[in-house]
Amino acid sequence: MAKIVNLTEAASIGFHSMIIIAQQGSKGQINVNHLAEKTGSSRFHISKVMQKLVKDGFLGSHRGPAGGFYLAKKPSEISLLNIYEAIEGKLEVTKCPLNRPTCPFNACIFEGVTVKMTRDFRDFIKDHTLAYYLDRE
Predict the structure, then answer these.
(1) pTM recorded for the entire structure
(2) Is 26 inside a domain boundary?
């Protein structure tokens, strides 16, 4: 479970690949080679991330030379938060970034900034669906 903003390469691959697939629309499927070319990521890493999104029902896939990935839901039904949590686990907003019950000081040394950062990030990715990124260049 991610405690504060932790944008891993896997999450970045998930966000960018899902937007590319959404932009494809009904024109067909997008294969791993195309996603690797567009994102600059390894085919292996993309495949691993995409399979998590297939497992959680956000993508469908077909194997073979003409295979690829396609959206299993409407772009308006998939938020960046959905994608993030499918890849990284539930995003929690906690008072302590280390999840400790007590602090050796009277107040958190981070003065609540980690809570604010995590909330802001969560709210942003919750409010942005794949539909937001369609027809944008």
Answers:
(1) 0.86
(2) yes
